[in-house]
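This section describes the prediction task in plain terms. A model, or a person checking by hand, is given the sequence of a single protein chain and must write out its three-dimensional structure as a string of tokens. No templates, partner chains or ligands are provided. The sample shown here is typical of the held-out split.
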Amino acid sequence: MLQEGREGVKPSVDPTLAVLARRAYESQGDEEIAIRKYLPLLHSVVNRMQVSFPSCVEVDDMISAGLIGLIQAYRRYDATLGIPFVNYAASRIRGAVLDELRHSDWMSRASRTKFKMVSDVIWNFEREHGRPGTEEEIAEELGMTKNSYQDLLDEIKPVTCIELDASPQSGETETMHEIIPDERAMRADQVTDKKELQKLLVERLQKMPSMARKVLAMYYFEDMRLAEIAKVCGVTESRICQIHTHAVLVLRTFLQNITTS
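The expected answer:
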């Protein structure tokens, strides 16, 4: 659904979604107590996903969407599966936010075309040189200045988050986070394949610029916010976001191509 804002047309969360979330949140009883207890988890998950939100998306709208996921997690959680509720709820929250982003018509066809173009250039560079390309090198391959390429990264950054979780086939309603089986049920050959992919991914990470490795490590392994990483690195939060987007795009493109080749 679209609404007209001061900056033009922008997507917004379905108004009924916020109403349902608010009603559930304000309901009485054990459910309300449980939901309130895990609101910090909700905010943490959404805030960490914010790195891939398009600029037109309001974080509060995504929190409303994530609240639906948290409520569903509470109602559907099965402790006998041996999965900690926090892990299960975080997955459901993330899935609900991704679903809302995917259903909102915020990404133009032109932006998706640009994303595909950049991915192709990144992969062609890697095949030719045997290593990931830096921002400067990819910009040169695209015939752009580094600043123009960084602006392009800001435009296409949501796709690196959404498309990875999109339905595997056009027209299907299931998303990848609903289809991918539990790791504990993996066959021996799947475990071997996963370990090989992890090994290849580590090798690619080691070939990336030190700044990109540092940003990925601090964001994914040290659980630091973009603003905190920016302060440590002495650059702006926007610049950290661009470095993160380029690094994720490089790794994502690599994984997609080696798993489909």
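For orientation: The first strand starts at residue 2 and ends at 5.
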